[in-house]
Amino acid sequence: MKIAVVAANGKAGRLITDELIARGHDVTAVVRTENRSNAPHAILRDILDITAEDLAGFEAVVDAFGAFISEALHLHSASASHLADLVATTGARLCIVGGAGSLLVDEDGTRLLDTPGFPEEFRPLASAQADEVALLKTREDAAWTFVSPAAVFLADGERRGSYVLGDNRFTVGEDGTSALSYADYAIAIADLVEDGGHVREHLSVRWA
């Protein structure tokens, strides 16, 4: 497949890029500055400046963009909206790296980020990503998939080579925790891109 990875220079983006390359896909990094990933091709562009022409011919677009300072959190929704506009035109699949805070903890629709024990320092980011997925749910014209990792998301965690795929509900593994490594998240993203299903769904990924 011909796949574009937006924000391929980031920790998640690099591992996703490497996983896709290892599977034989033709991967292009879409990055603001110099391409520091292992992708053999690169498009240098700010995320809101990406055009439909840039993405022409790609079968899938993985959005690994992340903003963490308060002044930039609005870019989660802005970039998702922009990329949805583009793939609605080009026909590509859009797979977005999300966060755990938007997952539901009960049948009343309470989100994980709204629970008392949720860390205050992560609440603004989680709220921005929850707004992002809410916006995507209004987009019936684009083939998007929003993928929330586990609550404990380990940048340098082990690669087990396995994971549990769920819907938009927060669940825990056999040890009572919700955890996952970036490496196994990259495997899940690559599997979802190759599978081509779960269109317009909010999914979750964790270790068993």
UniProtKB/TrEMBL annotation:
Signal peptide: none annotated. It comes from Schaalia hyovaginalis. Residues 8-190 form the NAD(P)-binding domain. InterPro entries: NAD(P)-bd_dom, NAD(P)-bd_dom_sf, Polyketide_Oxido-like. This is NADH-flavin reductase. Pfam families: NAD_binding_10 (PF13460). SUPFAM superfamilies: NAD(P)-binding Rossmann-fold domains. The lineage of its organism: Bacteria, Bacillati, Actinomycetota, Actinomycetes, Actinomycetales. One of its GO terms (molecular function) is oxidoreductase activity, acting on the CH-NH group of donors, NAD or NADP as acceptor.
